[in-house]
Amino acid sequence: MYLKETTILYVEDDLATQRLIKRILSRHCKEVFVASDGVEGLELYRKTNPNIVLSDIVMPNMNGIDMSEQIKKLNPKQIISLFTAYSEPEFKEKAIELNIDAYIMKPLDEKQFFNSLNYLAMAFHTDLEIEGDI
Amino acid sequence: MPLKLDGKFHIGASHIIGSYILPGEIIDSIQEKVDSKIKITIAPYNNIVKAIKEDKLDLAFVEFALPDDELTHKVWMEDELTLCSKMKLSNSLTREDLSRHRLVSREEGSLNYRYIENFLKEQNINYSDFDSISEVSNPTAIIQSIKWSRPNIPVTALAFVSRVAIEYELKYNELYTTTINNTPIFKKFYLLYKKDSPLIDVIKNICNELKVEYTKR
Q1: Residue A30 belongs to what domain range?
Q2: Are residues B84 and B74 in the same domain?
Q3: pTM score, whole prediction
Q4: Nearest to B49 by CA among B210, B197, B194, B205
Q5: Residues 160 to 189 of B: which have CB under 8 A from any A CB?
Q6: Which of A77, A84, A127, B47 could bond B39 through an S-S bridge, CB–CB 3.0 to 4.6 Å?
Q7: Rounded (10°) CA dihedral B1, B6, B12, B13
Q8: Beta bridge partners of B106
């Protein structure tokens, strides 16, 4: 229900992965916008104002962390999730600083992918507070 | 037919339930029952109980059930707590083995800490049987601490974590599980609400549906 009402900006430079994930997202989400690097992603973000941003980290022109930083400057509450592998620990500190909402692990696992997507959709459509004052 | 509420429907949840169990079908089915925006707060059990009593939360999903005349705790689901590590260990550890392991746990005095303490007692084990203990404040920090621990050092880090929180890591061999004395640990999840809540009919309706859904699985 929540996922069906959610718009997503998906940023990925690997075209085969991009096609696969786009196909899956299109089946389950309201609308999917696709970009191939951080520069294109940021431009599309400004135009489309998606509910959720999903992005790879290592990409040409602008990586996913730098793009997320720019997006958070435009909208500090923007929900962002990054695809990550354990071979990318150098980005961990910056990602924590940016308060990234969730990480989708690589290699991609369908169950984990949908768990994360559902969590992000829930975070967008409800007023979600973690360790907040009640 | 969803019931139109005046304001938001307030839900409280433990960290594990709010992050891994509610998203998807469960939160969708609750939303179908209430024609209002839902607010979810992820917080520790004691804070949730206080907020339920003060009518600041309408319904909660929690991992403990301390008796209280004002409140109803209904058993909802069962979870498995697993003992996990970065390095593959034998299927079962004995008391003697624990001196070679550091335990990453929740804070001393917390309900989680006491829950594990009771389990260990049943196995004739104490926290002091571990080489050392490091305390962290939430389940995510526990999992991260194990994931980023160095696997090939003499003292291996261990932690009790919910199986649902590490399904991916187990599937891709990024974490491994073991037991103490071959004994699995099962823990119940509960639905929690105030007996005289102003929204009691809606709450009971949701609880009935969630319990039916669960027993179907």
Answers
A1: 3-125
A2: no
A3: 0.89
A4: B194
A5: 167-168, 171-172, 174
A6: A127
A7: 30
A8: B136
Q: What is the ipTM of this complex?
A: 0.84
Q: Token match 């907040």: residue?
A: A132
Instruction: Return mean pLDDT, chain B.
Output: 90
Cα A126 from Cα A2, distance rounded (Å): 9
Q: Among all residues of chain B, which has the CA nearest to that of A122? A: B23
Range of the domain at B157: 79-186
Average pLDDT, chain A: 92
**Ramachandran region of residue A104, left (φ > 0), alpha (ψ -120 to 50) or beta?**
beta
In three-state secondary structure terms, B14 is: coil
Residues of A in contact with B138 (CB under 8 A): 131
Residue A47: which residues within 8 A CB-CB, separation 6 or more? none
**B47: closest chain A residue by CA:** A134
Give pLDDT, residue A4.
Answer: 95
